[in-house]
Design a protein that fits this description.
Blueprint lengths: L1 H9 L3 H20 L3 H9 L3 H29 L2 H20 L3 H29 L3 H28 L9 H21 L1 H8 L7 H10 L1 H30 L5 H26 L5 H21 L5 H29 L5 H7 L3 H18 L2 H22 L18 H5 L1
Helix pairs in contact: 2-7, 2-8, 4-6, 4-15, 4-16, 5-6, 5-8, 6-15, 7-12, 7-14, 8-9, 11-14, 11-16, 11-17, 12-14, 13-14, 13-17
C-alpha cells in the first residue's frame, strides 16, 4: 500500500503539485489572522456577537451560488482563466484587508475573499480529476490536498504568535503575496508543462448551463447529499467563529493563546490522524465513513455544550474529538463528489459543492444570535441534535434515483458550424 501510494505521488503532474502546495501556503498565511478576525471586529469597532456573525455570514452567502455557476463555466470554457481570476481576486481582497480602516472597507474586502475562494475551489478540485485518471490517484490527491491545507492551518497560528502577528491586521498582506505567487505559478504551469497544455485544451462546449441544471435537478441522491453536507458544515463551523465569540464574551483568560491552541490542536490532529484513519477505513464506502465521522462530530458538540467555561483542558479535548470527525468527514466529502460526478460535469458537481459554504457562512450569524439570546451551551446542544437530522438525510439518500448523464448534451442548441468543427 505504501509503495503504491509513493508510485502514485511520483506520477502527479506539476499542475497538481502547484494546486496542492498553493493550498498549503495560501491557507497557512490565511490562518495567521483570519481566525482572530472576530476579535479584530470586536476590539476595533465594538461590534456585538450578532453583528459580527452577520458580517461573517453575509460575506460568504453569495459566494455559494457563484461557486456553482463558476464550476459549470469551467466545464464549458476550461479551468485556467477561472483559476487565475480566483487567485487574483484573493490577492486584491487580502491586500485591502491589510490596510482597511473603516467597517465598509472590511465588509467589502471580506466579501471579495469569499468570492475569490468560491471561484478558485471548484475548478481546481475538478482539475485534479481531469489530470488523474485513476480513481485511487484522485482520492489520494484530494486527501493530500486537505492534509496540506491543515498543515498550513497548523503552521499559520504558530508562526503568527511566534512573530507577534496574530490578531494584527497587517498580516493579511502576507496572504495577498501568497496568492499572487500562486497566480504566477498557475500561469507558468499552464504555459510550460505538458499537463498544463492538455488541461488548457480541455473543455466541453456542448454542455449547456441549462442542461446541467436539468441533470442536477434529476440527481435526487446528490441533492440530498448536498443538503446533508451543508448542515454538517453548519454544525462544524460553530467551532470556528461562534466558539471564539462565546469564549470572548465570557472573558476566558489568555483568550488569544487559547484560540491559537485550539487551532493548533485541530490542525495537528488532522495532520497526524488523517492518513491513518484513511488506511483504517480504506475498505469502507464513502457514505459509511461519513456516518462514522458524523457520530464523532455529535459527541464533540455535546462535549462543548457541557464543558465548564474555565476548564481549558476540556476545550482542548472537545476540539480534539471534533478534529477527529473533521479528519474523516471533509476529505471524504471531496472524494464523494468526485465519485458521484460524471467526467464531463466534474466542474459543475464540484461547483454544486460550493453550497457547503452556505452552512459555513450562516453559522456565525445563527451562532451569534443564539449566544446573545441564550448561551453557548444551548447553541452546541442544538448542534448535537442537528447531527441526528444529518444522519437521517444520509439514510434517506441511499434509496434515491440518479439521472441519465447524456441529457446534459444539447446539440440542437449549438450553431451548425460549431457542430462540424
Amino acid at each position: 500500500m505504501k509503495w503504491q501510494a509513493w508510485r502514485q505521488l511520483r506520477e502527479f503532474p506539476p499542475l497538481v503539485w502547484i494546486i496542492l502546495f498553493g493550498s498549503f501556503f495560501g491557507r497557512g498565511t490565511y490562518f495567521m489572522v483570519w481566525p482572530f478576525l472576530a476579535i479584530l471586529l470586536y476590539e476595533k469597532f465594538g461590534l456585538g456577537a450578532a453583528q459580527i456573525g452577520l458580517i461573517l455570514s453575509a460575506s460568504a452567502v453569495g459566494a455559494a451560488v457563484l461557486g456553482f455557476y463558476v464550476g459549470a463555466l469551467s466545464d464549458r470554457h476550461g479551468r485556467r482563466s477561472i483559476m487565475l481570476a480566483g487567485t487574483a481576486i484573493n490577492a486584491v481582497a487580502f491586500a485591502v484587508l491589510a490596510f482597511a480602516e473603516s467597517l465598509p472597507a472590511f465588509v467589502a474586502a471580506m466579501s471579495l475573499c469569499s468570492v475569490g475562494r468560491a471561484i478558485w475551489e471548484p475548478p481546481s478540485s475538478a482539475l485534479i480529476g481531469d489530470l488523474l485518471k485513476e480513481r485511487r490517484s484522485r482520492e489520494l490527491a484530494l486527501q493530500l490536498r486537505y492534509f496540506l491545507v491543515n498543515a498550513g492551518a497548523a503552521m499559520g497560528p504558530i508562526v503568527g504568535v511566534w512573530a507577534g502577528l496574530s490578531a494584527q491586521q497587517s498580516t493579511f498582506g502576507l496572504t495577498a503575496l501568497s496568492y499572487l505567487a500562486l497566480n504566477l505559478a498557475v500561469i507558468w504551469a499552464f504555459a510550460h508543462t505538458a499537463s498544463g497544455r492538455v488541461a488548457r485544451q480541455r473543455r466541453d462546449r456542448s454542455a449547456s448551463f441549462r442542461g446541467t441544471l436539468r441533470v442536477l435537478r434529476q440527481d435526487h441522491k446528490f441533492l440530498v447529499v448536498i443538503l446533508a453536507n451543508v448542515l454538517a458544515l453548519f454544525i462544524y463551523a460553530q467551532m470556528d467563529s461562534s466558539l471564539v465569540q462565546y469564549l470572548t464574551r465570557v472573558e476566558v483568560p489568555n483568550l488569544v493563546a487559547l484560540i491559537s491552541s485550539l487551532i493548533l490542536v485541530n490542525a495537528v490532529t488532522v495532520i497526524l490522524l488523517q492518513f491513518p484513519l484513511l488506511s483504517l477505513m480504506s475498505g469502507m464506502p464513502a457514505n459509511q465513513r461519513i456516518i462514522i465521522g458524523l457520530v464523532i462530530l455529535a459527541a464533540g458538540q455535546l462535549w462543548v455544550a457541557l464543558n465548564p467555561v474555565h476548564f481549558v483542558l476540556g476545550w482542548l479535548g472537545a476540539t480534539f474529538v471534533v478534529s477527529v470527525a473533521e479528519a474523516i468527514l471533509f476529505p471524504t466529502m471531496s472524494v464523494q463528489i468526485d465519485q458521484m460526478a460524471p467526467d464531463h460535469l466534474r466542474g459543475s458537481y464540484f461547483g454544486a459543492s460550493s453550497f457547503y459554504s452556505l452552512g459555513w457562512s450562516l453559522a456565525p450569524l445563527a451562532g451569534g444570535i443564539v449566544i446573545e439570546l441564550w448561551s453557548g451551551s444551548i447553541l452546541f446542544g442544538a448542534m448535537f441534535l442537528l447531527c441526528g437530522l444529518v444522519w437521517l438525510l444520509y439514510r434517506y439518500a441511499e434509496g434515491l434515483s440518479r439521472p441519465d448523464w447524456s441529457e446534459v448534451k444539447e446539440p440542437a442548441l449549438l450553431p451548425p458550424v460549431a457542430a462540424n468543427s
